[in-house]
């Protein structure tokens, strides 16, 4: 089974940027997505991207986050700009039924 490994999380000040990466151990023929789960809250969709590149975003991140994928590298990215404290969460990569282990993003001054 394909495995997903996220990287790029960390601590950033409000208004800052981070770029998350999700590397798959094999070819992904499905749409891929990023989800997040804040403390005490349910996991929620952040963004998805089809294999052909069609994207979908949660309203809360539109205009600030950009999802992209490199099919040759089996990798999906999430560029996060203008980060807010409410973006603090564990971010998970997803492809069909496979989930990564998550990477923590903390937005705080």
What does this structure look like?
This protein is mainly β and 109 residues long. 0% of the residues lie in helices and 50% in strands. Strand 4 and strand 5 (44-49) form a beta hairpin.
* Class computed from helices, strands and strand pairing: mainly beta
Mean pLDDT comes to 96
In one word, what is the shape? globular
Largest sheet: 7 strands, mixed
Number of helices: 0
Question: Distance between termini?
Answer: 40 Å
Give me the Rg, rounded.
Answer: 13 Å
Percent helix: under 10%
Strand element count:
11
Order of helices and strands: EEEEEEEEEEE
Low-confidence stretches: none
> What fraction of the residues are assigned to beta strands by DSSP?
over 45%
Sequence-ordered SSE layout with sheet pairings:
Blueprint lengths: L3 E4 L2 E3 L5 E7 L7 E6 L6 E6 L5 E3 L7 E6 L4 E6 L8 E7 L2 E2 L3 E5 L2
Parallel strand pairs: 2-11
Antiparallel strand pairs: 1-3, 3-8, 4-5, 4-9, 5-6, 7-8, 9-10, 9-11
In summary, what is this structure?
The protein is built from no helices and 11 strands. The chain is mostly beta strands.
What labels would you give this structure?
mainly beta; globular; single chain
